[in-house]
Amino acid sequence: MANCTSCGRELPAFSTGPLSTLCRDCQARENSPSPLPSVTPSDKRSPAISLTKVLVGINVAVFALMTVAGASFLSPTSAQLLKWGANWGPLSLTTKPWRILTSNYVHIGIIHIGFNMWCLLNLGALAQRIFDRWTYLLIYTATGIAGSVASLWWHPTVVGAGASGAIFGLAGALIASLYLGKLPIPKQAIQSTMKSLLMFAAYNLFFGLTQGIDNAAHIGGLVSGLALGAFFAKHLTGSAEVRQQWRNLAFVLSVLLLSTGMYFVRHQHQELTAVVNPYDYFDQYEKAMDAFRQKDYAKTVEACQKMVQSNPSSAEAHFLLGLAYETAENPDGAIPQFQEALRLNPKYSEAAAGLAEAYKSKGMDRESKEAAHKAVELKGGH
Fold first, then answer.
1. Are residues 138 and 224 both part of a single domain?
2. pLDDT per position as a tens digit, 39-83
3. Closest CA relative to residue 211, chosen from 222, 203, 220
4. Could you give the number of structural domains in the chain?
5. Is 202 among the domain residues?
6. Helix (H), strand (E) at residue 9
């Protein structure tokens, strides 16, 4: 018995009217004046809640549970965020890599989740009309993870959380799909939607740059979304079987590329894998940052010393202690710490730069120039 060439459903044995390779639902959809195609035939047979609402619901539920458990409604602490699965190098790059996924459902206060969910509702409404459910879920998940990996690469010691990487990923996928795909949408409608999507991406990247928000996750999500959107663009109106084949291939490629990315980032930040007790390390790190913000440099040094004592093989800990000494105008204390950080991680360009400054403050010009030259070399300069 024949099957519908669009959705794959079995065609009835006897029918009236002109012969067609499409079932009645797909024929009706083809003749529909709607500018955007519905590419999920199963939705016609068994209406279900939209994937966008499911994703929003999960994010809101996690935030609600966090606040009920005692996390701050307006500004949860880093320790509270970590408890619920936030992204942080010493954990994500060692024993808990699953945080690169869970961090996409954790938010830093009511304003953070409110803005992100508003963006998700708007972009998701369009994504549901362009992509089938599984493609939409793959894009959202893969780009969210890509954003987390990019964040770990850029600043591994900063606690990261939020759905913005995945939201930027959706925006990127929609931009590429509308630009490259041959969708039955009026040209004017595509241009208007593209303009809105590009303005969304540009404005939020600029806002993140000026407000100190995690743009690494935004860029990681956007770039991976553009790549996935371009990959799917030519097959969005194909049969269910064709779409599934391309989706399966995209899934395999995403797993391979994201795994490679994690391996690369882990190799780049080997010093973080030496942290013996990540939670204790983080506790002292937080105390050091708080003391530094309050310009209490003695307490900053004390907290950094405890980081080194608990994790003597961590280049990051020695580097931070060196910075603390340097800020407290103690180059004699800073120099051996920067040297130890470089011994533990010979590619630590920031430690070389810190060493150059410490030498300079002691009037050791030749050593300072050598360390500065090494820092430039390690960063890939000339």
1. yes
2. 444 344 445 688 999 999 999 999 999 999 999 998 888 778 988
3. 203
4. 3
5. yes
6. none
